[in-house]
Fold these 3 entries.
Entry 1:
Amino acid sequence: MPVFPDSGPLRLVLDLDPDGACLPIVHCAGSISGCALLIEHSRGSYARPGLRGHRSGGRDWSPAFTGVRVEVDGDRLTIDAADPVAGLRLRTEVEALVGGALRARHTVTNDGADDYVVDGLEVTLPLPDDATELLDFTGRHLHERAPQRHELADGLWLRETRRGRTSLESPTMLIAGAPGFGFAHGPVLGAHVAFSGNSVLRAERGPREDATLGGGELLLPGEVTLEPGRSYTTPWVVFAAGEGLDDIAHSLHTWQRSLAAHPDAQPVTLNVWEAVYFDHDLDRLLRLAELAAGAGVERFVLDDGWFRGRRHDRAGLGDWQVDDDVWPQGLAPLADRVHELGMQFGLWFEPEMVNPESDLYRAHPDWILQTGGRVPALQRNQLVLDLTRPEVRGYLAGAVSAVLSSVPVDYIKWDHNRDLLEPGSNARSGAPAAHEQTLAFYDLLDDLRRRHPSVAWESCASGGGRIDLGVVEHVQRFWTSDMTDALARQQIQRWTVQLIAPEYLGAHVSSPVSHQTGRTLPLDFRAATAFHYAFGIEWDLTTASPDDLDRLARWIELHKQYRGLLHGGRTVRIDLDRAGELAHGVVSADRRHALIAHVQLDEPRSRRGTRVRVPGLDPAASYLPSRVGPDRKTGPTSGAVLSGAALGQAGLWLPSRRPETIELVALDA
Ligand code: DGJ
């Protein structure tokens, strides 16, 4: 019975039917339940079918794939099967990823004589019988990736994303485990659809059928209609398993760190959005750049507002030429000075969008996504361009490239500030185009990456609306959320690392009074909140006091000192079970160093102090705990050297502190 891969937390046992009459039965390691990677009604399953489709008149709607051939080639498993009656072929590919996760996808090919409409094609794995608790995520602008847990009772739990982008309310991952699983305990299996468009995540249990977990792309009506000889391939569906949620996160982070596009180092970045918004003034920006460089910033990003007509968010999108009124000498005086100061220069674009109030829209009103002749309702005063049309992609690649050729740009923040409403293409009489649009986005981005190989790219969508394992293969950074209030940010970051490694996640020190909540938070709390991630600033430093500038500079220096550990180690989130407190951190690969953050969000319930149990250390090694902060590396927290076993079981005791404070503790063996 072949097992794939040979080792790792998630292995598939391919239990082939003796006559090869059906798809392999797949068992996840540790699970005695079984199911095919594709759920087939024809094999007696009454669950949501893996392939839903038909030909004209409803023919060939229930395929039965036989003649299975399995091939293992290194870290890739390929399973081929066919249904000669329905005229369909199915290929399933499974890849073992660095770090222990698996990703799987199906390709269906139409071998028949007429069109085959694919309504849905999903990949599933079996769930153990006791995996009756589900964790997934919801959210909104400024509140992304809020966890929600519930029981997986009999029935179907279906999370559909139909906003045409990964979305602010994205389920992100669907994770199943025995009730009560935590960051470091409880066997868990999670699924994620690695795609930046519409998607489906599903978990299903029935009184007579094994439970399953999986997903695929959400297809709009007729969106994938296969002519004879044509194929449709699903996005990769990524599955990760382990003992506790941190195991899943770590296996995904390890894979991301193996990617060609992974950033070598993540520069400390200042983004000017919350400092100036649309009020672009060269002298003010130069002053900001000088202060940033003085504080140790390594990359300066000019956000929205630099192009023609963009004095507010009601006009300009689509006209990607520097605005002469605001920038009479172009962007060079700013970009050159930024470079002279030793920083990289970054620039904001939102290529997929157009304002009706723009020259582009006046010239090409038919270039938008729409259907039924209706102009979709505006969101943030903008519409979405139809990237499936080569002339639209050509215009955008040319316009962005022209800017990059005229001014030295090292970094692009690529934004996407609205959902896709009625995304039909005028090139095809308004037929749905969300699937093609998503692929066209990857194409356009890759085209620009090829033309400008030295540029680094950030994925942003109204904050954290395009964070997924599809786009991570194309970018170096994410804007985690427009929420820069550090108190609210703690939760968003804590859960975004469930999917994405901390070095990708832009985390910016904002102004003392939050622009989103009006709350005033101390600089040390704001900086320590950003510390473990892609550290940055989103604050008008021309208004900061000399003391604050000096302290910020010391935080930046400290971040740089620890950046290798923070961005290369294993992320740990600690189950504290105390209201108003959080703890998280990072442990180096050799387990000799760790940097733990204990976050006092609110007034502590008791004055007894907190015990923070640090997982993942070497039980036999001795660690010296020391406080880390901008004032000093203060030396031992208690004077005591503690073993990794003691730190893991009894924990590190920290005294009670005031709310809105963070204690950073280094543990060095
Ligand atoms: C939304 C982003 O998340 C912000 O950071 C900023 O870039 C604005 N868009 C600009 O319009």
Entry 2:
Amino acid sequence: MLSEFELIARYFSRAPRIGGPVILGVGDDCALLAPPAGELLAVSTDMLVEGRHFFAGADPEALGHKALAVNLSDLAAMGAQPLGFTLALALPAADASWLAAFSRGLLALADSHQIELIGGDTTRGPLNLCITVFGSVPATQALRRDGAHADDELWVSGTLGDARLALEALQGKLTLPAERLAVARPRLDRPQPRNTLGHALRGIATSAIDVSDGLLGDLGHLLERSMLGAIMDADALPYGDALALESPDRRREFALNGGDDYELCFTAPAQSRAAVLDAARQAGVAVTRIGQITRDAGVRVTDGSGAPLRVSSSSFDHFASP
Ligand code: ADP
Ligand code: MG
């Protein structure tokens, strides 16, 4: 059995990149970060609990990826540049092969986003992963939820709903041919946070949120903070490749209320349409215009002809009564 300190040294300690923002990484009482002069620190925490956010026995490499991906997605939604992250880990046992795979998935995503693991805490307990990310952003360019204006256009990146489709297939709530599950499953297990897009939208988008709990619910949070409403065309929603082959009702429901999408929902004035498309091209991510911000509160959803649809938001709430 590995000791706590052997475990940290073997799987979670690497020398910080020379010239990067990390002055001192794992191994001291605190890490030391040097954010770019004049920028604000952007900080966010997300926890993944076994049995709640992932199945017991989940692939540890995918888990390492996802634990960091969901946190990077919050930096993306703020337009913040990643600086570093900490990892608080409760483990039932120091299992070397589990740890090797977990740290491989975690650090591969960290490398691809140039963010370094700078510290953490390790204890024995039921499997629980908690990551805090640190990023930086110029004060005037942070993509806050409260920045939308009436008549701004409403956009979403990538595609929606495949993660929910994969989840329900794995839970046995619906049946999905194996080849379609193979398409949808990476969206659930290995979300790709939209950090390049978030950064490119600095100075263009007026507000943003990442879609983690379903588009309707997350858009609702943005609108509440901006004290505005929206009208949205359900037939304009970009469906995931696997979801696109499902029934119209399921497509609509999973695109509107899916969860685990980790796309960006954002607003920008109509005259910035070309700039938005240019930012998306630079980032290599598709973006779709799905509606418009209104002075009237609430979200009105229509079909492609403008006829109102009755939809309800079933955004996930950990403490909702069953
Ligand atoms: P402390 O006694 O200050 O709580 P620890 O003994 O818990 O410090 O940790 C020793 C060092 O290892 C610290 O720099 C801490 O940030 C780092 N560390 C602990 N657990 C992890 C982990 N899971 N991932 C990365 N660094 C970790
Ligand atoms: Mg400690």
Entry 3:
Amino acid sequence: MARFAFFEGRIVPIEEARVSIRTHALNYGTGVFGGIRGYWNPEHEQLYVFRIEDHYRRFLNSCRMLFINLPYSLEELKQITLDLLRQEAYREDCYCRPLAYKAEEGIGVKLHGLRDAFALFAEPFGRYLQKEEGARVMISSWRRVDDNAIPARGKITGAYVNSALIKSEALLAGYDEAIVLTQDGHVSEGSAENLFMVRHGRLVTPPVTDNILEGITRRTVMELARQELGVPVEERTIDRSELYMADELFFCGTGVQIAAIIEVDGRPIGGGKMGPFVKQLRSLYFDVVRGNLPAYRERWCTPVYETAVGEEAVEHRERVVGSG
Ligand code: PMP
């Protein structure tokens, strides 16, 4: 568990990071959040935070939607996160949870003119979905929150009641996850992850206008598929029945990473086991996020520690071993 938090402007012991029951965000779900993974690379003796700037860019956009004004720039949020991780001194994979919320205390539903706050904690984290190599899923009987009700692209705390309804229904019915449809019955995403389908040699994923969260892993997957795996990617609306006929299906997200879906509504997908594309993508993804590929490390992996092994040693070893 986390030992520290960034709370009310400074790093404090986690026990001191508490809010009143009168807090607006607790009463009305008026907060936005992020989820950022840190990956420990034992060879480099380094903790790499994956796409931290992209996560905070989305976070600040979510804030705009809820009229949340933070006194921090993107660069400052990044610095606070690195400071907290150094304080925790993690040498294992971890998950950072930034939260921006209406901290005003008292009764009254609205968004503007209220006191805002920022908090952050980070804890050790392994798998979010146990069955990453083969999840059995159902189509949820719930529908995804609509952009005209609670915008899914906002990563708004209150909207996760929708995700929780979807997830609990699936787990209680004996599935690992669920796929949720939009109000008009098209495929949207998982309870907390984006979805891709492999069909006719193409990668297909619902467009950002189908009430999905604009996932950073989704963007990563699209880039890796096009640039590294030579697979064309299409963003288009997907019908429910197309899922049953997919060659491969998978979820992606910061938490779930890349998870193969091997069954939808009792119908096996691609022979009921992880397919070759997902297998290849998973292996590439883990190399990228753990900082093993220099070109992507430079762009997407922010080192937390000064250097343990040292940048030069890592580069030397890469030249000798010839990796990346
Ligand atoms: N959709 C939802 C509803 C999510 O909560 C998440 C997790 N943040 C995702 C998709 C995946 O987004 P990302 O790749 O940015 O983590």
